[in-house]
Amino acid sequence: LPGLHIFAIAFALEVSVGKTNTMMALNNSNVLLPCTFITCIGFQDLVFTWYFNSTELIYHGKIKNKATEPTLVTRNPRVDFVGSTTKKDNNISILLKNVEFSDAGKYTCHVKNPKEKNAQHNATIFLTVVHKMVETDNTVTLIIVGVVGGLIGLLILFMLIKRVVLFIIKKTQDGKKECLVSSSGNDNTENGLAGSKAEQKAPPKA
């Protein structure tokens, strides 16, 4: 029995609305409500529905199989289907047009797959409708920006000073290296010349 339980989990239907389930939309704008589903064994005559506040059906679609795009059963006139199921991700996202304040609430994407013994799963998005997209306390924002800006400024200054210091140290070390190389080079040359002169003078004396 434990083995069968694990097997069932491996082939379970999963519905997702992305990394976050909260969205904000501007009044009178269009908003994309994302939704995708995953099923390991594929699907046949899959049914998907979108609900507003758990009760109001705003989109109902069917998908015959992976090779076909969804067909519309019924929809709210202000809702358009914008997904695709013949591509890699089984996208059943919708577009809500001309958003109003009354559209704020819970949107549920529900999927039922008869091929998985009518397995069902859903995911929810919480939509907020605002008059303006920026409605935060500016004082707090400015303080945060000021502090962060100051820290970034200090960090940049520190990095610049570090680079200048490292550059000066490098130049000084390079200078010393050059000096050492040139002086040792001269010594070698002089020694070489002295040696050669001594060698030339040696035979006549002998």
Automatic annotation (TrEMBL):
InterPro entries: Ig-like_dom, Ig-like_dom_sf, Ig-like_fold, Ig_sub, Ig_V-set, Myelin_P0-rel
SMART domains associated with the record: IG
Membrane topology reported for the UniProt record: Single-pass type I membrane protein
Boundaries of every Ig-like domain copy: 2-126
Keywords, comma-separated and alphabetical: Disulfide bond, Glycoprotein, Immunoglobulin domain, Membrane, Signal, Transmembrane, Transmembrane helix
Any one GO biological process: regulation of ventricular cardiac muscle cell membrane repolarization
Cited PANTHER family: MYELIN P0 RELATED (PTHR13869), SODIUM CHANNEL SUBUNIT BETA-4 (PTHR13869:SF14)
Protein's cellular compartments: Membrane
One Pfam family linked to the record: V-set
Tree of life domain: Eukaryota
UniProt lineage: Eukaryota, Metazoa, Chordata, Craniata, Vertebrata
Residues passing through the membrane, by range: 31-52, 140-161
Protein name from the UniProt record: SCN4B protein
PROSITE patterns documented for this protein: IG_LIKE
One GO location term (cellular component): voltage-gated sodium channel complex
Chain intervals with Polar residues compositional bias: 181-191
Molecular function in Gene Ontology: sodium channel regulator activity; transmembrane transporter binding
Gene3D superfamilies documented for this protein: Immunoglobulins
Main location: membrane
Region annotation Disordered: where it falls in the sequence: 178-206
